[in-house]
Amino acid sequence: MLYFFMSKTFISFFFVFSFLLGGCTNSVPSEISVPTLVPSPIPTQLVGNDADEHGCIGSAGYSWCEFSQKCVRPWEEPCTAASPAPTVDETSIIKTAIKKAIVAKHGSSANSLIITVSKIVDDFSSGGASVPGEGGGMWFAAKADGQWQLVWDGNGIILCQDLASYPDFPSSLIPECYDSQTEKLKVR
User: Rg for the chain (alpha carbons), in Å?
Assistant: First the structure.
């Protein structure tokens, strides 16, 4: 009986296996279709190929900085305005140069003078020199080789010969001078 049971189990198993195998075989087509691989399109914008009108590559973190006029990475070099150059106080420079020149010309008594600047026109200037409570005079200066030089100082008439070394001295500062040869005022 055991033999019969085993053979019956074996035969049942064989039929089920054959059925399954046969069913699979019949359901598979004779030609196997393999899907074809289609390559992805290549992106038109390659990484690193995104330079802007200034040549800055955005994908690398660069952007244009107006202040430094170059491409910068903000985390490496901040884009900030350069600290402005210290402004030159031309008025203070003129006052110092004129006082020094007047002291050299008139002696140490001129040390107490207060120098004022009235006008600066390009490399020429005018102003006054006074002692508090005593009065004063005027002065004219020109900048030559980067240094302010006293052209004339006093209370009188400006001689044309004093201006001979400064032919470009603006007539807006000195509109006329005294010509000692003709003994007349000359409009400049």
Answer: 50
Q: Which helix (H) or strand (E) holds 6?
A: helix 2-27
Instruction: List, for residues 81-123, the tens digit of each pLDDT value.
Output: 766 666 678 999 999 999 999 999 988 888 889 999 999 999 9
Q: How far apart are CA 152 and CA 150, in angstroms?
A: 6
Residue 91: CA count within 13 A, CB half-sphere: 7
Closest C-alpha to 91, from 129, 126, 132: 126
Torsion angles phi and psi, residue 176, rounded to 5: -150, 160
Whole-prediction pTM value?
0.53
The confidence band for 8, taking pLDDT boundaries of 50, 70 and 90, is low
Helix (H, G, I), strand (E, B) or coil at 136: strand
Alpha-carbon distance 72 to 86, whole Å? Answer: 26
Separation between Cα atoms, residue 150 and residue 169, nearest integer Å: 12
Angle at 63 between CA 58 and CA 65, to 5 degrees: 170
8 Å CB contact between 129 and 137 = yes
